Structure formats: C-alpha cells, structure tokens
Amino acid sequence: MDQNSSGGQLFRLDSDLNAKMVRTVIGQTLVWFFICIDMLMLFTFFSKHAFRSDARYILFAHTLLGDSVLLLLNDLVVLLIHFQVLVPVGRCIVVCILLAIASKNTPYTITAMCLERYVAICMPLRHASISTTGRTMAAIAVVWACSSVRVMTDLTIFTIVAPPGYFATPTLCYYQVMLVTEWHRLMHVIFNQVDFGIIMVILLFCYTKIMLAAQAASGENKQSVSKGRRTLLFHGLQLILCMAELWVPYIVDLIGVQNQSLYVHIRFFNFISFTIISRALSPIIYGLRDEKFFLALKYYMSCKAPL
Questions:
Q1: What's the pLDDT tens digit per position in 148-167?
Q2: C-alpha angle 286/279/284, rounded to 5°?
C-alpha cells in the first residue's frame, strides 16, 4: 500500500512537472516569436523616413515598443510564478510599476490611434495640420503621463498603508502585492472600470462618425472609409482583450481559493489569451493590413538595404 501510494504521488509529481514544462515551452515560444515580429516591424519603421513622419505609423511604432516591453516583463513574472520563485516585495514593486505603466500604455495608445483615424477620415482637410509629428509626440507624452499617474497613486497609497517590514517579505511577484487593503483593491477595480468606460465611449464615437462618413462616401473614398471602419473594429477587439487583462487577476484569485489545479490552467490560459494574443493584434492590424508598410516589410525581410 505504501509503495502504491508513493508511486501514485510520484506519478502525479511527474505529470505536474511535464505540464509545467509544456506550458513554459508554449509560452516562451509565443512570447519570443511575437517579440521578433515586433522588432522586425520596428526596424522597418525606423528604416524609412515616410513612416517616421506619419502620425499613424509613429503611434503604431510606440505600440510595438510598449508591447515588446510588456511581453518581456510579463514573461519574467510568469516564469517566476511558474517556478515558485519568491522575491522581496520591495524588488517586486519595481517590476510591478514598469509592468503596470506598460500595460496601461497600450489601451491609451490605441485610443489615440482611433482618434487619428477619425480625424483622417472625417476631417481630411484638417488632418495634415492636426496630426503633425510634434502633436503626435505630445499625445504620446500624455499617454505616458496618464499611465504613470494611476500607478504612482497606487504606489503612494501602498507606501502609506503597508505594515512595517512588508517590503522585505518574500512573495510571488504580481501587481496585487501593492494592494494591501480591501478599499485600495476596490478603488483599483473602480478606476479600471472608469478607464474602460471612457475608452469605449471614445471608440464608439469614432466608429459611429466613420459609419456616417461611409454612407456619404463614394468610389475610392468609400474603400478608404470601409478600411478605417474595419481597423476600428480590430482596435475594439484589442481594447477589450487589453482591459480584460486588468479584470482577470481578481477572477483568477477567486478560482484559486476553490481549486488550485484549475487556477494554474486558467492563469496560463489568461497569459496566452489576454497578454500575448492581445498584443499580437497590433502587427496584424497595422503591419500586415497596411499595404505600404507590408511592402516595406517584405523588402527588408528579403535582406535589402534600408531605403
């Protein structure tokens, strides 16, 4: 009986280790595959002056850069959690701050890209004067400011309410270690909902205006408007996935209390779906669907010199 019991425990341990290795290999393959794609597209962007002076491509490059940083940091956190590596809260906070800023950057940048498409399609005569390089860089600065304010607010509250000695406590590294009180966690959730609501209102406004423009357009202009409408639909899907990433930890924590085994699988599914796949949509939306960028990408992939 003892031997059978020990054998069963050993078999379950091996199965867990095998499952962990499979999850690790799948996650690492996807993360580094999309990081390589992002790097290739960033190389294409910086190699051609026409892209560096166009507002839509500047915002696209900013999204690619932010997504690459986010994937790297998320990958680090996931590996630490998968292998049960405990780090002091003080060190974990540094990673959490960078991760949170990069995470919030994406939906704000996508919102700016939606507004740029709205101006290009619904206000074509003013587009050149509104979407200048200087104003685009100013918009990126606003995105960084908005992303940082929320995180710095959380850090300030955490510093005030954290108990003595908490910074030295070993922990698995994830953002919720900064939310030590119930009211702070609730405030964090409410602000996420407000962010999502504001972003979706802006997206719906832009989409409605572009739909109205599509009805009034004709010929080549109608094709351009139709393409802009499909782009906004892709952006809407990407925004929902990005914002879902902010809600998921609370749902997963509730499941973890009930079923630890299911918790591990759902956490891995969330990492693939809401972190990797949502960030993979950016290259598809702008890199592969945009004819000019796609032709330049093919040119550089054939190992030609920069133009």
A1: 998 899 999 998 988 888 88
A2: 30
